[in-house]
Amino acid sequence: MRKFSSNQFGAYLIIGVGALIMLAPFYFMFVFATHTRSEIFQLPPPIWFGNDFLDNLHLLLERAPFWRNLLVSFYVAVMGTILTLLFSSLGGYAFAMYEFKGKDALFALVIGTMVVPPFLGMIPTFMIISALEWFDQPRALYIPGAASGFGIFLMRQYIASSISRELLDAARIDGCSEFRIYWSIVLPLIGPALGTLGLVAFVGSWNQLIGPLIVMHSMEMFTAPLALRAIQSPVDTEWGAVMAGTALSVAPLLVMFAFASRRLIDGLTAGAVKQ
Amino acid sequence: MATPTLPTHGESSVSATQTIGPQKKPRFLARRWWPYLFLSPFIILFAIFGLFPLLFSFYLSFQSWEPTSGLASMKFVGIDNFRFVLTDPWYWTSLWNTFYLAVISGVPQHVIAIPLAYFIHTSFTRWRNGIVGLYFLPYITSTVAIVLMFSTLFSTDFGFINVVLNGLATLSGVGIFFPDEKIDWLNRAEYIKPAVALVVFWRYVGFNTVLYLAALQAIPKSLYEAAMIDGATKWQQFRYITLPLLRPMMLLAITLSIIGGMQLFEEPFILTGGRGGTDQAAMTTAVYMYRTAFEFNDIGTASAISWLLFIIIGALILLSRKFFPRAGTSDASITTA
């Protein structure tokens, strides 16, 4: 056994306390979701679970069609993830396995889209959505983001390092069409990268705020975060109900994170770490 | 598409060595066009939702336009929008708020994340992923959820943060460092910036920790072994090996913090109910741009604000490269360690 030095004990202590501080807001979110507003706002505030979750849920559903809002969020996230995976793997495959005119310039463009601040396009995007008459349409949320420079970058890296050109040439000699090669050979081999990008795309879509804020105008088509924001009024917020809704909207991501934290962390930091 | 006239050679098990060459079955598209086809979804979507908005926003910044009165009311006004923005006190307030928030939320992120990553790197092996996950968790949570959680904790009379601070204030000795009154975090101009900064810090410290941890794991163990043989203390190892070799990652992480900090929108927007708080104390430039566009319906001015902000971000990135020159110097400090 290694000697347990006091230095090391100090490190464990600091990191442990820090981790508790990081978790505390999540803990209180779940605790408050089970208390009425008057219970939340008393001294001292509750620190253990109550039994008013269903009442809170009931209140929440009076103020917003929250199941529907969750469904909109889910639909947008699923569609966005599928399109991102498809377009990114196609684009990444083209960059990794083909030589073509303008390849370097196009790739520079892909990288360029990753550094342009999103707020620059906010107003014109609003106008385009308006011109297309896509207000209150889920597609306004998942189509613009489906051309992901980050996704193409990630896919290119993975395909270039994991698939050999010889394999594809062999398939060509056997008469495989270029699309068949992508669909039947490349796609099955890049499962791990698709998984990582899929998680990143899903989480990004699930959490997006600015897009829905601009294009979703009716409560029926609000995503979950937008609905939660809407029922938080300055004077009369039902905090128990708001916390119940917040917990419901966060829970799917917590479950996802519990099962795939390593992969999500790797994916979300890949742009920075792999440079 | 023409039907293939040749017998399908896949079935007749023609080996790969047997060249079929030029008489291959006619293809739907010559091979050199395929990459463009594969890239076309990206190119088309990027043209519509990426490039065009960018150019159009540049064009808009020289126009005067209220969207409610239709496209025909658009009018070229030269640099009037920029002139207006640069003489607008609210713009300068928002810029000051943005810088202030970027510094008081950004600096602590790195000051904490570097030693935290170092401790995790040196003290944890088996539990490392779990611990890192806990710190990273806020990053994958939606800003709305985070801000709503914090809104209850920041509540003046019954919020947990005030309860804890007031409790600490009653302790003898350290008590004087803590407030013994209830702080109105979200409604008093002087407290709303720290409140926003705390939320931003809490959200991104784990992200930076992961970046630094990745950089630490890339440092060769042999360097530390050599230093130990030379009798270097733990602190000397951290100071003369770890820190210099972290410099490239520091440049990157700090650049990312600057880019993110200058665009800070969601946290102050939701914490202040979309208006920027009492006396605009938490109105960042991005929030001001949003209000100018969607509340005051002044699209031209909002576009000018966004381009000015873009220029500032670009300048800051160049500046950060000056302060943190890549490599070179770090190699020198290893050899002198």
Characterise the protein shown here.
- The complex is a heterodimer of chains A (275) and B (337).
- The model of chain A has no long low-confidence stretch (mean pLDDT 88).
- The two termini of chain A are 39 Å apart.
- In chain A, 73% of the residues lie in helices and 0% in strands.
- The longest helix of chain A has 35 residues.
- Chain A has 14 helices and no strands.
- With 275 residues, chain A is mainly α.
- Chain B is an all-alpha fold.
- In chain B, 64% of the residues lie in helices and 1% in strands.
- Chain B is built from 13 helices and two strands.
- In chain B, strands 1-2 form a two-stranded antiparallel ribbon.
- At the A-B interface, helix 1, helix 4, helix 5, helix 6 and helix 10 of A face helix 1, helix 3, helix 4, helix 5 and helix 7 of B.
Topology readout:
The complex is a heterodimer of chains A (275) and B (337).
Chain A: H1 6-32, H2 37-40, H3 53-63, H4 66-97, H5 103-115, H6 122-131, H7 139-142, H8 149-162, H9 165-173, H10 178-189, H11 191-207, H12 210-215, H13 224-231, H14 239-273
Helix pairs in contact in A: 1-14, 3-14, 4-8, 4-11, 4-13, 5-8, 11-14, 13-14
Chain B: H1 34-60, E1 63-64, E2 75-76, H2 80-86, H3 89-123, H4 128-136, H5 143-154, H6 160-169, H7 189-217, H8 221-229, H9 234-262, H10 266-271, H11 285-294, H12 299-323, H13 329-336
Antiparallel strand pairs in B: 1-2
